[in-house]
Specification:
24% helix
Length: 194
């Protein structure tokens, strides 16, 4: 048997191990002492870890819309990780067509793709637009953890644009950011959500 034939199986095993490896987040560090609710996400696969002091109420420019915002952790087995997520929950009399969330502050601007969950009840639409916070999102969280900043949230799509004002409490953002970093969250692979 030639040398390459003996080495090839070991090389393939090592390559496969590298391709499937991911950093483990320490959930004990993440949740230790955190007053939170743990619940399955609407997709039935992911798990949401939401601090009990939320939601935060945003003020929409258009009075026909109402918005609340959550910043929570979401464990996503299909992406091999637990990530921070910002969700804008919108209530309105008509369904919107949104695919992007832009967050503007005096110290920067961040743009995120969103996923959407919609339900309808009694001629009202309840829409959740969620953005997973990858590399840029963690940079934003670091900024928001330093001081309270007035934010402008803009949900945009091909035919709709909804703008709201909100200030996320810096002490809450610092708690979430610090817990995520301490639990090893920054060591995870963000390539699938960036």
């Amino acid at each position: 048997m030639k040398l390459w034939q003996r080495v090839l199986p070991f090389f393939l095993i090592a390559l496969l191990a590298c391709a499937t490896a991911h950093a483990e987040l320490d959930e004990n560090t993440l949740m230790d002492g955190l007053a939170c609710t743990v619940q399955p996400d609407t997709n039935g696969i992911d798990t949401v870890i939401r601090p009990d002091n939320q939601p935060y109420v945003a003020v929409c420019e258009d009075a026909s819309h109402e918005m609340i915002v959550y910043v929570d952790f979401v464990e996503m087995p299909n992406l091999n990780g637990t990530f921070l997520r910002l969700t804008c929950s919108l209530v309105s009399g008509s369904m919107t067509d949104i695919d992007t969330l832009r967050i503007d502050a005096s110290s920067g601007s961040w743009i995120f793709d969103t996923s959407r969950e919609v339900s309808e009840y009694d001629d009202m639409y309840y829409e959740d637009y969620a953005a997973l916070l990858g590399t840029d999102g963690m940079a934003m969280m670091k900024v928001l953890a330093k001081k309270d900043l007035p934010l402008t949230l803009t949900l945009e799509g091909d035919n709709d644009c909804i703008t709201a004002a909100l200030t996320l409490p810096s002490e809450d953002m610092k708690l979430l950011y610090d817990r995520f970093v301490s639990a090893g969250g920054m060591e995870q692979d963000f390539t699938l959500i960036d």
